[in-house]
Structure formats: C-alpha cells, structure tokens
Amino acid sequence: MAEALAQAAAFDRFADDYDTGFAHSIPGRWLRHAVWRRVAPHVRHGMRALDLGCGTGEDSLWLAHAGARVTAADGSPAMLRVTADKATRFGMGDRITPRIVDLNAPGDLGGPHDVVLSNFGALNCATGLAPVVQALDRAVVPGGVVALVVMGRFCVWETLWYGARLRRTAVRRWSGRSTADIGGTTIPIRYCTPGDIVRAFAPSFQVLSVHPVGLFLPPSDLFARLERHPRRLTRLMRWERGRPIGPAWPVWPIII
C-alpha cells in the first residue's frame, strides 16, 4: 500500500510536465502515431475500451475519437485530472471515464472491454505481471484484443550513448530490473523481453503479433537533445519508417 502511494505521488508530481517532455515532443508524437497505426484495425465504433496506465490521456482521446467508450485507468490522481480536463476540453467527457487503478493490485478493471491499450511502459511500473493478467482475463470479452507497449530490455541507443560516457545507465536494463527517478522519487522499474510478456499472458491470451517501434530513436530522456538537431531527427524517423518489419532489439515492443 505504501509503495503504491509513493508511486502515485511520484507520477502526480510528473503530471504537469509529462506532455511537454514526452507526449507532445516530436519523437513522442511520432512514436504514439506509430502505435495507433498498429492498434487502429482492432478499434471500432461502439466498442468498450480500457486505457490501462493512461497517463495524461492522449490514447484515451484517440480511442474516444474513434468512437469507443473509454475507461481511462491510472494510479495517479493528478494524471487522471489532466485526462479528465482534456476530455472536457475536447468535448469527450461523456465518452471517457477516469478510474484509479493500482497496477500491482488492479482488482476490478470494469468492462467487459473489447479492446485494451497499455502504452509506453505503464506495465514496466508493475512489480509483477500476474495480477495484471488475472485482472485482464476477467475484464476482456472473449475474442477481445489487448495491445501492450512496454520498454524493452535492450536499447542500442541507450547502451552506446551512456556507454561512451562510462555511465551505468548504459546497462541498467540488462538484468530486467532497475529504478527510475520520477518526480524526484526513485521507483522500481521492470524491463521485459517480448518473450517474457508472451509467457506471462499465456494461456489466457493468444499472441497475434509483435512489432518493434522506436528501433532507431533514442530513449525519451534524450528527446530534447535530439530535437535540437532536426535534420538528424528527420533522418532517424525516415530510417524508422523504412526499416523492415522484425523483432530485433525493439525499444518499445508492441504485443497484440
């Protein structure tokens, strides 16, 4: 309980800056649109959708705009307030319902949901996947789709950039467990391979596909630095768009 409160408070302090630092950055928008392109074929008007670990609600707005009725779930009250404010501002307050959810003890996720999206590492903040799998098993309709975007265990950019500077950050993901400074609080982070996710969700869920996104882009703590070099950023996004489909070293594996 104390850990959940500490984590929620950390993300509360981060809520006002999240969009500026990630969601509304050029790489952040590009990555999110790449995820949406993968998930869009599974979203239809009238569906019930769950945005699990919704943050500031960017995915909730997209799902609602596509015609879904959305439960926006997060452990941070401040993040949910930002989400609710956006929903009202864009005239979607009647289609988006905020809900407090602790990923380490998710309990009732509402539903039944036709589609679930957990984007950009929300599940990396869970200390174990079993409670999430059990909760989703109860909350998703038979034949429903769950799309998970997690931070992978290997990031070439991170290893090369910080390795050249002899910083331990270069290898922090490799063991699968590390920490992150969120809002001035150190919280535990778990890094998974696609295989880890597949095994954790079997046999309740069958994998339809795995897609890497962000293979040529750096981790988000380097976005601001990269945006100061628009030509380099454009080149990297062009490489990302033109790379062959394959699971090699994804920074953000999308598992559907």
What is Rg? Answer: 17 Å
How far apart lie the N and C ends? 31 Å
The overall strand count is 9
SSE topology string = HHEHEHEEHEHEEHEHHE
- General shape: globular
How does the major sheet shape up?
Answer: 7 strands, mixed
Uncertain stretches: 244-251
Average residue pLDDT: 89
Please give the order of strands in the largest beta sheet. 3-2-1-4-5-9-8
Strand content: 15-25%
Oligomer designation = single chain
- Helix count, DSSP H or I runs of 4 or more residues: 9
Structural class: alpha/beta
Helix content estimate: 25-40%
Describe the structure.
The protein has 256 residues and is α/β, with parallel strands linked by helices. The chain is built from nine helices and nine strands. The chain has helices at 2-23, 26-39, 58-65, 77-89, 130-139, 156-164, 194-201, 223-227, 230-242, and strands spanning 48-52, 69-74, 96-100, 113-118, 140-149, 177-182, 185-190, 210-213, 252-255. The strands form two sheets. A seven-stranded mixed beta sheet has the order 3-2-1-4-5-9-8, with helices on both faces. The model is unreliable at 244-251 (pLDDT under 50).
